[in-house]
Amino acid sequence: MITVNPDGKIMVRRCLVTLRPFRLFVLGIGFFSLCFLMTSLGGQLSARRPGDSPFTIRTEVLGGPESRGVLRKMSDLLELMAKRMDALARLENGSELHRASGDGHFAADRFPPGAGLMERIQAIAQNVSDIAVKVDQILRHSLILHSKVSEGRRDQCEAPSDPKFPDCSGKVEWMRARWTSDPCYAFFGVDGTECSFLIYLSEVEWFCPPLPWRNQTATQMAPKPLPKVQAVFRSNLSHLLELMGSGKESLIFMKKRTKRLTAQWALAAQRLAQKLGSVWRDQKQILVHIGFLTEESGDVFSPRVLKGGPLGEMVQWADILATLYVLGHGLRITVSLKELQSNLGVPPGRGNCPLTMPLPFDLIYTDYHGLQQMKQHMGLSFKKYRCRIRVIDTFGTEPAYNHEEYATLHGYRTNWGYWNLNPKQFMTMFPHTPDNSFMGFVSEELNETEKQLIRGGKASNMAVVYGKEASIWKGKDKFLGVLNKYMEIHGTVYYESQRPPEVPAFVKNHGLLPQPEFQQLLRKAKLFIGFGFPYEGPAPLEAIANGCVFLQARFSPPHSSLNHEFFRGKPTSRELFSQHPYAENFIGKPHVWTVDYNNSEEFEAAIKAIMRTQVDPYLPYEYSCEGMLERIHAYIQHQDFCAAPGPVPPGARAPQSPFVLAPNATHLEWAQNASSAPGAWPPAHSLRAWLAAAGRACTDACLDRGLICEPSFFPFLNSRDAFQKLQVPCDSTESEMNHLYPAFAQPGRECFLQKEPLLFSCAGSSTKYHRLCPCRDFRKGQVALCQDCL
């Protein structure tokens, strides 16, 4: 009979209380040891080639003695733990059996025997020991094999001296010092050896020549291009709504807009299909990455959708998606960085390596946030594929800000510029910067029945104020007081509980309205009035399309980055002479009135005149669904920024000049008997070249003559011959980097040619220069396209 004193019994029970958690702790130690085993091998599971199994350990990069030492230490540690646990386990077993005699069979069922714990520990130790032996054998075999291979390839793994690859040796030096700085190098097989550096630099990147002893078949075989497929217009947008996703208020807003305009998109597609006839349209694979909606960029827009925040960007993006889809192209949409990386094929790491596969997209539409994300994660592939990118850029990017070196040297560098893209890759909301491409958006188009209803339902004395945020109304009491004498004023200012104090009591504030209700309000109103902000939004066009007159302020001096905080840092020197220059310059009276709000008499007289004026709903063709489809179709089919430049370099003389002086001797025209420049778009025969007055930008010089500046024609004019044909005396001719060239300087009779093609610019002026300006005609209601551009 065994006796146990009370103190011993208490001590055993205390020990048992601690033993049960300790069993879990030991099992955890075992699991942690196995995890530590994997990581101690130098992270080789992640450093695999694209074709390896996820569980393949590459023996050629295992760290010999270090790995063996770690495995032995782990095995010894587990054996020591097993010995120390043995006595405690026996004590636990005895205690459990003693308790089981009083508790019946339940104790045996509830508590596993301590022997099971010991078996698990011993099994872990044995497994680690077995792994250590196997790894030791593999390492010994690998070292022997590696020494033989090294002897055979020592001469073949030296950086070659090849004038075609001048950066090779420097890149090898960089790899020696920095290859561990990014896991992506190990992902592509770099292991610290000279051979792995050269293989990577010749087969993944392109700084070194191919190694002669490597199998070149896989490297040289580029993937076969997919057969061309004809794009077919779509009228059912239900699949597009699925592609757009959900979960963000901004996406919900965009989907509602797209769904509401489905019928108009379908009708527009039918009209454009009839206009184009049997013209073949290539179907493109297009990625749309809306960078400003990603969490990484802050996504400041989504939370403000329901609080009166700006919706112009989301209106435009919704219409871009609809346009690309209706035109029949393959579409992929991303609003997160993770989705972007997956679709591009970004390797694991910090973004220093190229993509793991050729870019599967013909075009990428994104914004400045998305552009930055792509540059950060695409490595060298960004430079290779950036010609396929189209950047949605509301206010435009002028060439002087786009060219990194020039912007840095001449004070044009901003937070948003210096991308060295072709300026036509930037796509604006309005056609204010001809150096860029005009993307636009759409306004709802009314049918004849709706127009008749509007004519009969207009209130002659009702005004709606342009401004959903209370801050826009601040300090506008004087204007509102004058307007209130003649009209009933309505507002759509967002508020949560209390009426905003900035909105006078005599204003009927509806709060923030859904888009259909806002449209109905505009259809009743006579006047839509702006107070100077926001700039260049879609609302004035929507108001004009619903039969309103738009009244806006004239800015004197004009607003720009020089005098207004809103434009500071934007990559443009453009000056705004009114809140909405497009409405002023391309629509004008009777639909648009631009007056000096500081002149109370002029302001009041304009209100009286507007009340007497009858206007019908008006929508410029380029802002209709059909107009946007037509424009983007032309861009996709004809704009190619990946092709090598065609025109002759600065100062080179063509065998025969394609220009003739116009009969009135004021400008140059493309000669009728001259061959059209192959591949040029717009077609070169639409070119008209003028010498602008000193201090006049080409943008304005062309508009003065009812034409549009066309920057793609600058290379044709960038020669001494063009000046001679215009009878301009050039005593000297020089080529320099300057965004105002080609130009003529009157003092000294000097002619200057452009040295850098990316700096050809319609924008910019100086009183020192007469700029040589390329102009073209345009289609009625579609300034982005010339008469023969379709």
From TrEMBL:
Keyword field: Glycoprotein, Glycosyltransferase, Golgi apparatus, Membrane, Signal-anchor, Transferase, Transmembrane, Transmembrane helix
Catalytic activity entry: N(4)-{beta-D-GlcNAc-(1->2)-[beta-D-GlcNAc-(1->4)]-alpha-D-Man-(1->3)-[beta-D-GlcNAc-(1->2)-alpha-D-Man-(1->6)]-beta-D-Man-(1->4)-beta-D-GlcNAc-(1->4)-beta-D-GlcNAc}-L-asparaginyl-[protein] + UDP-N-acetyl-alpha-D-glucosamine = N(4)-{beta-D-GlcNAc-(1->2)-[beta-D-GlcNAc-(1->4)]-alpha-D-Man-(1->3)-[beta-D-GlcNAc-(1->2)-[beta-D-GlcNAc-(1->6)]-alpha-D-Man-(1->6)]-beta-D-Man-(1->4)-beta-D-GlcNAc-(1->4)-beta-D-GlcNAc}-L-asparaginyl-[protein] + UDP + H(+)
Coiled-coil regions listed: none
EC number(s) per entry: 2.4.1.155
Keyword Glycosyltransferase carried by entry: yes
A Pfam family per the record: Glyco_transf_18
Protein name: alpha-1,6-mannosyl-glycoprotein 6-beta-N-acetylglucosaminyltransferase
InterPro entries: GT18_cat (IPR026116), MGAT5_Glycosyltransferase (IPR052105)
GO cellular component: Golgi membrane
Family: Belongs to the glycosyltransferase 18 family.
GO molecular function: alpha-1,6-mannosylglycoprotein 6-beta-N-acetylglucosaminyltransferase activity
Gene for this chain: MGAT5B
GO biological process: protein N-linked glycosylation
Principal EC category: transferase
Annotated membrane topology: Single-pass type II membrane protein
Membrane spanning residue stretches: 21-41
Localization annotation: Golgi apparatus membrane
Residues of the Glycosyltransferase family 18 catalytic domain: 184-775
